[in-house]
Amino acid sequence: MGKKEKAKERREKRLQEIRLLRTIPYSDQQRWWSKETVAVVTGGNRGIGFEICRQLAAHGLTVILTSRDATVGVESVTALQEGGLNVIYHQLDVVNNSSINQFVEWLQENYGGLDILVNNAGVNFNLGSDNSVENARKVIETNYYGTKSMTEAIIPLMKSSLVGARIVNVSSRLGRLNGRRNRIGNVAVREKLSDVESLSEELIDSTLSTFLQQVEDGTWTTGGWPQVYTDYSVSKLAVNAYTRFMARKLSERSEGQKIYINCYCPGWVKTALTSYAGNNTVEEGADTGVWLALLSDQTFIGKLFAERREINF
After folding, report:
1. Which segment of the chain is annotated as a signal peptide (predicted)?
2. Which of 89, 144, 232, 260 is catalytic?
3. Fewer CB within 10 Å, N or C, the chain?
């Protein structure tokens, strides 16, 4: 059996374990939440975001599903409500500051804040073996800057609690610094982004500015960037780095004010983002994000997960 076959076998075995775990209900001791617990999911109108909304609501939380397109968002919420789930809709465009501000005001006025934020909104324009960077700026703006803007706007609204509020960023293994495949070839950049103590927003933003400048002048192919889905991978690399940076910043908060921020890779999921060419179902893709959001004894902060396990950045 070759390496690919062995890896596939291990992945399938792990997914089978997770399918079993999902059938085991949370105990009363594990259920720190109630119907008053508010979870906000960006990009919740389809795919992984929709499934995260469904699973969180099925566990008894109040879920606010958001999307850029109000028409499809309302349709998605209606489908969940018809299933008896407590899901509310509000329009939100994560790359529009006015839209974010309007949402934050509405959330504060109607719910007094939130307990869980899932930054799921994202775009990808490459399919199959394509690796165009034609839409690189839009990919970076949505996947990274949208996540960053939403996180910064929402943190002041996160409710105090003994178990801590939670932020889950949907990311990807494609953005790993030190993965066996697709990692950044520029050793200097890789080392700087690996050093969590010196990691800063300025470093992350300047790295992205360099990438976009190279895209603009046509030199990005020799810049040492990831070779697969380059713009998407760079955007998720930035999300991973931002998660680690924010974790360091948020770790200083006192008990009762804690906010646990982590990111996870849903895997190659059968959704519109992959043109339904993935290996995993949406249920499997959403699982680790929901698991992170609902952990009762939350101790993880600034980590990257896949299949309910921590993996290296």
Report:
1. none
2. 232
3. N
